[in-house]
Amino acid sequence: MKHLRQVKASAGSGKTYELTRCFLQRLVQSGPPLSAAASSACVLSPGGGCGWGDILAITFTNAAAAEMRDRVIRQLKSTALGHPMGGLPLSPDQAARWVDVIMRDMGALNIRTIDSLLHLIVRAAALELDLHPDFQPVFATDEVLTPYLDVLLERAWQGDETMRSLLRAVYRAMAWRENSTGFLAGEKLLNQLRGLLDDVLLGRFDDVSPPDALRKRLDEVEGRAVSQAKAFYALAVASGLNFNKNGLAAVEAIAAGLCKESKLLSKDSASDLFLKKPVVSDEVQKAYEAFSHAACSLVETAPLLRQALGLGPVLLLAQTLVQAFVHNQQQEGSLPGLLIPHMARQVLESENGVPEALCRMGARLTHFLVDEFQDTSREQWQALRPLVQEALSRGGSLTWVGDVKQSIYGWRGGEPELFDGVFDDGGLTALAPDGQRDNLPYNWRSRREIVLHNNSIFGPLARPDTAARVMAALLPGSTPPDICAQAAQGLVRAFAGTEQQCPDNAREGGLVHVETILSVDADALGEDVLDRLCALLHDDIEPCHPWADVLVLVRSNDKATLVADRLIRENIPVITENSLRLAAHPLVLQTVALLSFLDNPEDDIAFMSLVCGSIFCQHPEAAALDEEDIAGWCATSGRGPLFQRFKKRWPEIWQRLLAPFHGQSGLMTPYDMTLEWYARLDVESRFPEAETFLRRFMEVLYSAEEKGLATLPTFLEHWRAKSGEEKSTHAGNHGRSARYDHPQIQGA
């Protein structure tokens, strides 16, 4: 096997199978099946061999690591039972011994995520890094750093004038920059800080210009523009030239220091600013050119400088928080996760860093197999690279598998360019010049029509002419030709070999149908697409398939809402991510309104939501409400609480449907109250389509009661804080079915 091997693996090509095969090949090459400790010499010994614990497979997720670990064991067992994997020189007896050895020492089976590897390196060097020995990584940086904001605010409250001055500058800048209004500025401040904390923590703002320098630069830009505008205006008037309306407005705006864009600021001739476009003197033309240069500089530069000045105090506050965290880092139990790759790189690139790290981990890490490499971030790769370089220097290897078409983690730093960029790393290719590029050609998962369609989309991108046209369409017209050519070459390299073949036993059939819809503008296009979707669903899908077989993919949650609303109007049942939220379901909203009213009878909004809801106003015993616009009646002004006026207006309905609950509100738990409400108003039988939501809400009520939230105020407070996280699921029995007196809600 080559020391550097890249494997392109498109969807369905058997990527995990190939990784498992590579891992087992390295396993067999490591020697006879001994325990991990016995098969590896001391990692500091240059003559030591490679043990099976020195083979590291790196996956992207814990689930992928568990799957690969399971496949390795399963394949060894299969080989032991006489069903070997192709290309694996392993007898059944050897496989059986490997199973026995690995099962006795599963912890040495080195299949882990890259995050867990880097975390292990950092934890082993916690003392040198001045970290708490039992630190826990935290994904969100603000969770670690914003508690220090409370400390700084307390210092300001206690009279620290430095902190008071900083906070005044921060809020003054926020009010000036955002035209911020209102008194609740805490969340606005946190939103400003969240956008800066990651970069400040990584030291990316250590060399920014100080506020004084920014202010000086802004004053220079503004002063020069104003001066040149006034000089040009005075010279033009003295020369007897009459400005046209737009020209005068452009010059006056700059003379007032306003960053107002205008095409007249960058004309070739000054005559375009005057009536009848007269021939102007060289002196006027030179004055215009000086004005034009200064004005364009003002328009382009001043907004950035002002934004930087506005962010300056917030940046200083973020740096103060980071300094407080670093000062307390040794005692801090949490560590921002984004620091771990940088700290791991710091450890490994220090003097004797790699040997010491390997010694602490108790393994040589000679062979690396990396899955989903296209989603590896540059920071992760830079941290991993010293280990790979050390392994290659000892005859080890790196095998990386991925597919740039499936790169979806750019939001967390994934760089698909790294997939091919390994071969551009001279430090690695010098140690392993015999690099190999492989491609898994077959799609073992999809039907033939799907494979052919994918090939028609991605295959042409590997051709230079197509790649050049694509990049010309994607990049701005002002992009230099050499940049376009370089981008096209990268596209060709990325998509080379991505066309897949179908095996002989591939399933036939499948359908991919693409339509082009043209409209006059973006809004009309959205409506036209929805019209075509509805027609397709009604005419082609509904007669042949149940709705449960249909999946509509859209680009965003907002688009999903628009599509769902349209399909509902077309009497097509839909489920969206948001439609599964308990807090958004109408019947749950009405139930919470009931509980809110019972907790505070003077809450007119809760009472109105209750009596106008379908549970209450559509009940047969509330038929009298049909004679009047109940929502309009509730909205009319009147004296006293709304429920009192309702009680006088409809006493019989109040007595039958509401009085029992109102009288028992302080004596029953929210769970029991809701249980009785649903039973009394026949909710489950009247709204069978909402059964899953209602059962899940009952589970939430029961769980809250189990946690001690057994009163209306405590449950409602809990619901307001956590309701957005609750979604409808297939509810199970939560242990109180024996208490149900009515079948409408059994199993809740």
Number of strands: 8
Compute the CA-based radius of gyration: 35 Å
| Biggest sheet layout | 6 strands, parallel
* Low-pLDDT sequence parts: 41-48, 730-748
β-strand percent reads: under 5%
Could you tell me how far the N terminus lies from the C terminus, measured between alpha carbons in angstroms? Answer: 59 Å
Overall geometry: globular
The chain-level mean pLDDT equals: 85
Strands side by side in the biggest sheet: 3-2-6-7-1-8
Portion of residues within helices: 40-55%
Class from secondary-structure proportions: mainly alpha
Number of helices: 31
Give a quick precis of the structure:
The chain has 748 residues and is mostly helical.
Describe this structure in words.
This protein is mostly helical and 748 residues long. 54% of the residues lie in helices and 4% in strands. It has 31 helices and 8 strands. It has a 6-stranded parallel sheet, sandwiched between helices. Strands 4-5 form a two-stranded parallel sheet. α14 links the parallel β6 (367-370) and β7 (397-402). α5 (114-124) packs across α12 and α6 packs across α7. The longest helix is centred in the middle third of the chain and has 46 residues, at 282-327. 30% of the residues are buried.
